Amino acid sequence: MRYMPEPFKIKMVEPIKMTTRAEREAFIRDAHYNAFSLSAEDVYIDLQTDSGTGSMSDSQWGAIMRGDESYSGGRSYYRLIEAGKEIFGYDYVQPVHQGRAAEKVLFPLIVTPGQYVISNMFFDTTRAHVGLAGGRAIDCVCPEGLDSGAYFDFKGNMDVPRLRSLIAEHGAENIAAIVMTITNNSVGGQPVSMANMRETAALAKEHGILVVIDAARYAENAFFIKEREAEFADATPLEITREMFSHGDVFTMSAKKDALVNMGGMLAVREDGPLVDAIKTRVISFEGYLTYGGLAGRDLEAMTTGLYEGLDYDYLRYRIGQMQYLGARLEEAGIPFQNPVGGHAVFIDAGKLLPHIPYDEFPGQALTVELYIEAGIRGCDIGSYMMDRDPETGEQQRAPFEFTRLAIPRRVYTQAHLDVVADALIAIRDRAAGIKGYQITWEPKVLRHFTSHLKPV
Ligand code: F0G
Question: With DSSP H G I counted as helix, E B as strand and the rest as coil, what are the percentages for the chain, rounded to 5?
Fold first, then answer.
């Protein structure tokens, strides 16, 4: 498959360190085989996340110089609000410092303890904030999303028939909200179709249930709709985005992904009303005054410019093209991954690549360690290692899949870097049978994957 050439040239570079295998073996051992504990300087290609790790453009850096740092009513704030209205069509747009800040402000306002919140799949922090607000989170992704080997255009979709039966089972009054995560990060950055968004929104409306869009990767989702849903073949990513957001009542957004900034987020409400007043009160307590929301004026400028750049068709074609190029190289080599590739990452099916490692010895983590030792590449486990223990029995929970996620930062790595990744995976595949699983030697009670210590079994 042809690599889609970059629609930009490089104006500034950041050197990265080359290390030897022996050095990497020592670094990862000293990090207790936890890639989060590595020093980023010792990583050659960092695919741990696409969040806040992108390169800003010269326009964004230029906009930063125009940041208005007034405490209230700054010019940069009004520029962001106008962009938010134009792109998303929402009455109220609130900047916050990142995605989880929007979640922290919103969920206690919409969830009554004991209520359910249903999503096509929650991202960890969203699930955590539903729980902290006393809600119960239910994942409801379409069955195709869970079958990594089988191609399906929209693996991120909501399972609408199951959603309907969940509403019937629990009663609409016990469902605080439906959360549409676009793209669906946890099943592999998989898109949600417009047809599915329409159907979900119609069902929610029929039952008077609030629809929240978790919008971190809105532009990548719009691109997939353009490519894969015939009705939208001639629509621009911006036009598609407008319709997608018309199917939600509220959105939370981490702007660290498609809005191309290193820090930032938004919380927006389609129609002005009492929810907006309640949001304002919480924002002032947690994030700062309404017109800066935990960000500097210059951050607001970079975010506004980034919101538009993220929707540029040539950029999106190159961006998704990077995933597809890496996916094609892996397919050629017979390396299993969530097929098709997602918008921001390639999810390697470590469960299939390392079938001799049981789930409670963490195949996704074993592959993460091996990729680091092989070529200094840092990915992360999205599998049973990432699951905390059952709070009642203390038993290791089993994830529906054992993935190693390779998230590609935006506008950062080149084709040659992606070839290094593919070659490393091929080398690992050739010696897969000798790769060992891991056991945890120390762990905290929650979100253990960030800090726990491991050792090879
Ligand atoms: N929602 C989704 C779908 C996300 O992927 C993330 C972050 C958040 C919300 C939270 O946003 O980090 O700005 O507070 N995802 C990153 C990742 C961390 O690596 O996938 P945040």
Answer: 45, 15, 40
440 bridge partner residues:
454
- 86: tokens are 């134009």
| CATH fold of 58-309 | Aspartate Aminotransferase; domain 2 (3.40.640)
pLDDT in tens, 317-376: 999 999 999 999 999 999 999 999 999 999 999 999 999 999 999 999 999 999 999 999
449 is annotated as an active-site residue: yes
Summarize pLDDT for 107-160 with one digit per residue, the tens: 999 999 999 999 999 998 999 999 999 999 999 999 999 999 999 999 999 999
The CATH class of 21-50+312-456 is alpha beta
CB 55 within 8 A of CB 310: no
Residue spans per domain, the chain? 21-50+312-456, 58-309
Output the ligand 1 site: residues, CB below 6 A: 49, 51, 98-100, 123, 125-126, 181, 185, 214, 216, 254, 256, 265
Instruction: Choose the residue to mutate in 49, 97, 123 for probing ligand 1, maximizing ligand atoms within 8 Å of C-beta.
Output: 123
214 included as an active-site residue:
yes
Q: Is 439 in a helix, a strand, or coil?
A: strand
Q: What is the mean pLDDT of residues 189-216?
A: 98
Longest dimension (CA), the chain: 61
Q: How far is the CA of 92 from the centre of ligand 1 (A)?
A: 22
In b/e form, how buried is each residue of 405-442, taking b as 16+ CB within 10 angstroms? bbbbbbbbbeeebbebbbebbbebbeebeebebbebee
CA distance 173 to 170: 8
| Helices 75-88, 237-246: crossing angle, 10 deg rounding | 80
Tokens of 371: 């990729």
ipTM of the prediction: 0.99
Residue 216 CA to ligand 1 center (angstroms) comes to: 7
133 Cα to the center of ligand 1, angstroms? 18
Asked if 209 and 168 touch (Cβ cutoff 8 Å), the reply is no
